[in-house]
Amino acid sequence: MASVSLYLNFKRNTEEAFNFYRSVFGTEFIGGVARMGDIPPQDGMPELDPADKNLVMHVALPLIGDFILMGTDAPESMGFTVNQGNNVYINLQPDTRAEADKLFQQLSQDGKIEQVMAEMFWGAYYGSCTDKFGVQWMLNVDKK
């Protein structure tokens, strides 16, 4: 089933923030916490700084109803500059690749493509962009 969630980027304290949110909402992480050190080597990707291996690559926490809050650490050593305002993405999870491609093409028109839609190591079809109004979007189609 298609869904929408919010994705937060933190400098280096995602785990602290999400443990706080978990205590507030009384829910548990979906699938645990994935770490940067879990990322398999990728062509063209620089070697991960040992200090970053335990940072959070992905965490998901149900809040109220069907709403999921997701997050990641975005360290400067990996080329990120997190500032208040650029740390939030609207994450769309359409049912099909065709729907994701259509939404991505429309949202990225006159905007900025960060990651073209492609197969990712975590098993999904994914892309990200910033629209012409500065709103950041992620599209993620899980393998079924």
TrEMBL record:
Record organism: Candidatus Kerfeldbacteria bacterium CG15_BIG_FIL_POST_REV_8_21_14_020_45_12
Domain of life (superkingdom): Bacteria
PhnB-like domain mapped to chain residues: 5-138
Protein's name according to its UniProt entry: VOC family protein
CDD domains associated with the record: PhnB_like (cd06588)
InterPro entries referenced in this protein's UniProt entry, alphabetically: Glyas_Bleomycin-R_OHBP_Dase, PhnB-like
